[in-house]
Fold this sequence. Notes:
The protein is mainly alpha-helical. It has helices spanning 55-77, 87-112, 117-134, and strands spanning 23-25, 32-34. It has a domain at 39-134. The chain has three helices and two strands, in the order E-E-H-H-H. It is elongated. Its main location: membrane.
Amino acid sequence: xxxxxxxxxxxxxxxxxxxxxxxxxxxxxxxxxxxxxxxxxxxxxxxxxxxxxxxxxxxxxxxxxxxxxxxxxxxxxxxxxxxxxxxxxxxxxxxxxxxxxxxxxxxxxxxxxxxxxxxxxxxxxxxxxxxxxxxxxxxxxxxxxxxxxxxxxxxx
Length: 156
């Protein structure tokens, strides 16, 4: 153990320090990664080089994130399983719906991790509209034997 110098194994030195504007660049990449919220239409959302530098595609990406968030809320409050369904079939459907809901919710979360303020706002707006439509009592028909949805709402 003598003579071993561990100073060059400092884990903190592996990541480049952020610059003054809150972004960081990797040594062998030309992409800039934001580490703080920013406004702008030049963001990468979910996929490499998507939506790209075309402003129109940025708005398509915003619409996609909005739709994903609404879909997550629908899956959180949908009632697909009919009363009297077999326990095994109902359990498998619940499991499939849960898997789909969690996967889509993680996609929304990863989109928000782009740190683009527009993406953040449309994700929140999508969850809000989805909850208003599918989770609140505003548009729900009163049901006599209301036992709740197939899936409990996502817990934060």
